[in-house]
């Protein structure tokens, strides 16, 4: 059997952050991105990393601003930490916050490696990503370094300056603007992203307060969702998540999902058959699983049926009962 290429996923909230920034500061609209706006109401969802890479490139093309990610990363709006603001806010010192941020990166995107290296009196925060598209790679590197710099400034103040920053990829035409925004020496074309700062700064205690409106507790379901990001070679779990992603574009098709994993439809079908499961069975499971999740919301059953790709509630009810033995109405009544 031929070796399967890894398939990387990333949380929707990362794309949501980019698009909201582009809409606010560059006058763009959701229609400019050819992505369902409803998708961004579900920031816990997973999307293909290749779609995120394409988005990074598209925003640069639309804004004609190669420094847009550097500007985004320096926003004082703590929403850039997404659903993890509470983890940052509750850290009693910078060292604890760094440990949590490093763990969080693995829950945001599969295939990344984030760690701290100590070299004498210098601490080196390092971010390694599977992103390969050159134009996207430099933007992701700027975002990662900028986000970590924002964390350092959160604890040390807005005037804080790291020792140096290493970025992957070729510098853009706005190289000097990026360097001005980060306000520290930058080395380009590095094998991975790094932020260097004094080791002694790690022990800095928390001196800031966050508005309570920005601190939201995780539900058990959300916590479990963040922990269960599929590994890049786990084809069954990856396809399961991508069928949920496909629901925002209509009922999941083999062709759509195969394109997202970079395979021909027949190749994907064969890979699944080797695991003793069909694409159709995965779709049925993911659709019903998504419907059960939506049952805990205020959506009506008609709205849930449409959200999971069915044109009629009756056909959805038949499919759901075939899977669980009861109608979705009874399931919602008895188990939700």
Summarize the structure.
The protein has 336 residues and is of the alpha+beta class. It contains 15 helices and seven strands. It has two domains: 67-214, H-NOX domain (Alpha-Beta Complex); 234-335, Homeodomain-like (Arc Repressor Mutant, subunit A, Orthogonal Bundle), CATH 1.10.10.60.
Task: Walk me through this protein's architecture.
This protein is α+β, with helices and mostly antiparallel strands and 336 residues long. The chain is built from 15 helices and 7 strands. Helix 1 packs parallel to helix 2 (49-63). It is globular. The mean pLDDT is 89.
Keywords:
single chain, about 325 residues, five-stranded mixed sheet, H-NOX domain, alpha+beta, two-stranded antiparallel sheet, Arc Repressor Mutant, subunit A
Q: Report the C-alpha radius of gyration, rounded.
A: 22 Å
Query: How would a textbook summarize the main sheet?
Result: 5 strands, mixed
Total helical segments: 15
Query: What is the string of helix and strand elements?
Result: EHEHHHHEEHEHEEHHHHHHHH
What class, by secondary structure content?
A: alpha+beta
Q: Strands across the major sheet, in which order?
A: 3-4-7-5-6
Topology:
Elements: E1 9-11, H1 12-26, E2 46-48, H2 49-63, H3 68-73, H4 85-89, H5 94-108, E3 113-119, E4 122-128, H6 134-156, E5 164-166, H7 175-182, E6 186-187, E7 193-198, H8 220-227, H9 235-246, H10 254-261, H11 265-274, H12 279-294, H13 301-307, H14 313-324, H15 328-335
Parallel strand pairs: 5-6
Antiparallel strand pairs: 1-2, 3-4, 4-7, 5-7
Helix pairs in contact: 1-2, 2-6, 9-10, 9-12, 10-11
């Amino acid at each position: 059997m031929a070796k399967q290429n890894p398939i990387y996923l990333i949380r929707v909230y990362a794309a949501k952050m980019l698009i909201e920034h582009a809409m606010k500061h560059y006058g763009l609209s959701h229609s400019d991105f050819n992505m369902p706006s409803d998708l961004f109401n579900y920031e816990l969802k997973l999307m293909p990393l290749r779609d995120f890479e394409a988005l990074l490139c598209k925003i640069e093309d639309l804004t004609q601003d190669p420094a847009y990610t550097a500007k985004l990363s320096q926003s004082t709006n703590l929403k850039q930490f997404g659903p993890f603001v509470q983890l940052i806010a509750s850290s009693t010192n910078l060292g604890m916050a760094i440990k949590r941020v490093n763990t969080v990166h693995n829950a945001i995107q599969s295939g990344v490696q984030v760690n701290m290296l100590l070299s004498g009196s210098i601490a080196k925060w390092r971010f390694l990503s599977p992103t390969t598209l050159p134009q996207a790679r430099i933007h992701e590197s700027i975002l990662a370094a900028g986000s970590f710099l924002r964390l350092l400034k959160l604890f040390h103040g807005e005037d804080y300056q790291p020792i140096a920053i290493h970025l992957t990829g070729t510098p853009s035409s706005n190289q000097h603007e990026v360097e001005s925004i980060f306000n520290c020496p930058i080395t380009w074309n590095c094998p991975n992203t790094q932020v260097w700062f004094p080791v002694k700064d790690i022990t800095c205690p928390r001196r800031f307060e966050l508005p309570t409106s920005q601190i939201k507790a995780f539900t058990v379901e959300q916590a479990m969702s963040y922990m269960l990001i599929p590994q890049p070679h786990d084809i069954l779990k990856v396809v399961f998540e991508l069928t949920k992603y496909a629901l925002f574009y209509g009922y999941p098709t083999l062709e759509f999902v195969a394109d997202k994993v970079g395979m021909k439809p027949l190749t994907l079908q064969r890979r699944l058959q080797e695991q003793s499961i069909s694409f159709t069975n995965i779709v049925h499971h993911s659709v019903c699983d998504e419907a059960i999740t939506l049952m805990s919301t205020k959506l009506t059953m008609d709205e849930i049926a449409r959200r999971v790709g069915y044109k009629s509630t009756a056909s959805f009810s038949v499919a759901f009962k075939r899977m669980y033995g009861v109608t979705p109405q009874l399931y919602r009544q008895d188990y939700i």
